[in-house]
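User: Here's a chain of 205 residues. Predict its fold as tokens.
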Amino acid sequence: MINALTEEETQKGIRLLFDGKTLEGWVATKYPEGWLVQDGNLVCKGESNGYLHTVDQFENFIFQLEYKAASKTNSGVFFRWTDLADPVNTGLEMQILDTHDQDTMLKNSSGALYDLVAPSSNAVRQAGEWNQIEIRCERNQIRLSLNGIVVVEADIDQWTAAGKNPDGTDNKYKYAWRDRPRKGHIGLQDHGGYIEFRNIKIVDL
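Assistant: Prediction complete.
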């Protein structure tokens, strides 16, 4: 079923965040013309830079979506994003990038907890194929799955200093993630690449 819930999912309290027809429940920043609904998919035309974010905020949850991106597209799913004017520093990001042919996984490879944790394996499919993402946030525990494979498991409380990872390497963030609020928006990134999304679902934990 595309952009619909099964009876079992409904009974489990899963919510559909995209109905396949409208952008109800979402708000675009900077370039709203860059987002549209087409053939049941939420489309980012990739003609500018900006974000589409949920009106609602979430703290502990399991979030799922499917995406299909053009070659070389760079995008991401932001979560626990607290300051809508500063997504780069106040939102965690699961990276979306065309790195199917990459041998060494980096902190900006597809599936990474961006700039914090590299994915444990290369699970992304070739450009133009559908991928499945799952983001699980439960208090300080973050788990990212790509195409059914867990690629990141992180304890966000280990990030105790601004701009530093637990292993001493640098990251881009102005703040220590241990001290950040844990309730925030979910956002989809327009980073100048074409990408389609569907089956966007969430359940509170």
